[in-house]
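Structure tokens please, single chain.
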Amino acid sequence: MMRRFLLLALLMSLAAADVQAQTEVPPPRPLLPIPTARQLDWQRDELRLFLHFGVNTFTHREWGTGDEDPALFNPTNLDAQQWARVAKETGFKTLILTAKHHDGFTLWPSRYTNHSVASSPWQNGEGDVVQALVEAARAESLKVGLYLSPWDRHEPSYGEEQAYNAFYLGQLRELLTQYGPLAEVWFDGAKGEDAKDMAYDFDAFWSTVRQLQPGAVLFSDAGPDVRWIGNEHGFAGETNWSTYDRTKVGVGMAGISDYLNVGEAGAPDWVPGECDVSIRPGWFYHPDQAPKSLDHLLEIYFKSVGRNCVLLLNVPPTPEGRFHPADVERLQAFRATLDHIFATDLAVDAQATASNTRGGSSVYGAAQVLDNNLETYWAVDDGIHTGTLALTLPRPTTFDVIRLQEPIQLGQRIARYTVEAWVNEGWQAISTGTTIGYKKLDRLAAPVTTTQVRIVIADALAEPLLAEVGLYLGNRTNTAE
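Here you go.
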């Protein structure tokens, strides 16, 4: 009896030691650079809503001249609660408002200019659009971002670098200190040909944001946190690295669109792309324009979020101060279609195997790609830059969308891959790609039915890692402009 007890105790000890050995396999080293916490939060939100609103809404211009009469600004039924409610219902996590566009008219009562809502008839000059947006967004548990145009066509000091940069910093401080936490502060380098020649003190602007709003990501062509994707179509490059070299770009610099669109493998700075695009042809509301088709919005989604970016979709309020019903209807259809496509992950019950597993540990095993957790991942042994992960499905399964995700908290690694399916007694390539990053969504030209799928990683900058793999049915392939 004692001998059997000792044998049982020995077996239990060995089993415990084996489990302990598995959990003690060290994780792979990060491939630098890696994202900050605020960049990770920004990327995982995926969808942000832009609101272009101001005097241009009433003059039907895209770029105001700066000499508009503030009396023009008089929305008859401004409803920031509608903006926030529609955003929440359609899956957007952050609202970003044009607090000041190029015309210099401020949507808050700035102490530094009379060209503001305080000089308008709206709410008898007592209104504050920024405050209204902030209160509405937070009531819906949404985040807030603000855009403050560096180009100001109204301000007399524009063109005098020291004076104007001090003026701009004064307005920036108002926005950073009066409205609570901000998730994003948006800058650009837009200037018309008639703009006076002067340099913006972006280093001071960005340092001020860091000091007063340390949780906010900073957007501009050059980052430092989030970069422009190089166009206003909402399309990232098929190859899209979250890394690039900030010394090669500058805000408003010409000839860098292609570089911004693709990024650079192995570059020293982590600056992922944000795809900004408007639901209408213009950024501000114009009554003679209509929203993009549903298929066009879906194409934008797959070429932005589905190419390792965040989608910043502009929805311009009308002169009334509300979203147009046609825009709301399109957003609701967009959300319903995405929910339909991604409602059921057809890979969730698959059995996953891999060509190699780091240290033989289940902690880094193939099954981690099916657990709906971006903090766990399949990993291979050090020094291996290729690999194959296979899924065996419990029954013949039809799908037309493939989702791949890397654990970008450890860097972006994968540079070339193929997805294959077992069809007609052989492996057939159904999708090929380069980068994956936070999320890659591959839309198939036609549905595929199979019981076996495998992801073949042909090249990576370091040991490849995969956090998630998903298969879906419901893709709309008919896109239209």
